[in-house]
Design a protein that fits this description.
Blueprint (H helix, E strand, L loop, with lengths): L1 H40 L4 H25 L22 H4 L4 H11 L10 H48 L1
Helix pairs in contact: 1-2, 1-5, 2-5, 4-5
């Protein structure tokens, strides 16, 4: 069972690293949009300046969510929220976050055909606790990424509108 739990843990760590990489890219893009919008902030046309200011605000919110997600590490493992009639993927972070430690260990033992006589020890439970914690952090990071991406999209929309208005003015 330990090998199975270690494998799941390693896969979840890869997912978490992927989520952090996405945040790094989002932060870089939002920062570039801020620099772009600052060039148009001082223009005399009030609507262009307003769009540039909106672009900066949305980008700053995107960067803020990106940094919050990169620093997200603390989670609590609560009660299990699983339903008995549903088949869960025990390797998928969004399904794992629904389990508590005991339920997860029992489900892994059952679903992956571990010997019936096998009694999970403290290391199995600690690995399960780590798996659930990493799954929750990963889920949180992806949620913040979605919010960050939404504000980056709004920022880019303002930037495109600024370019179009300047193009029409010329």
């Amino acid at each position: 069972m330990k090998q199975t739990l270690k494998y799941i843990y390693e896969r979840l760590l890869e997912n978490m690293k992927f989520a952090e990489g996405k945040h790094a890219v989002t932060i870089a893009l939002a920062s570039a949009v801020i620099v772009f919008a600052l060039n148009f902030l001082s223009l005399t046309a009030p609507f262009v300046a307003t769009l540039s200011a909106g672009c900066i605000v949305f980008s700053l919110i995107s960067v803020l969510y990106g940094f919050i997600a990169l620093s997200a590490r603390k989670v609590k493992i609560g009660e299990a929220k699983i339903k008995e009639d549903v088949k869960y993927n025990l390797m998928y972070y969004k399904d794992i976050i629904l389990f508590d430690v005991e339920t997860y260990v029992t489900k892994v033992k059952q679903e992956y055909n571990m010997p019936k006589a096998y009694k999970p020890d403290n290391m199995d439970k600690d690995l399960a606790r780590q798996i659930i914690s990493v799954a929750k952090v990963t889920s949180l990071k992806f949620s913040y990424f979605n919010l960050s991406l939404l504000f980056l999209f709004l920022s880019l929309t303002c930037a495109v509108a600024t370019i179009l208005l300047l193009g029409l003015a010329l």
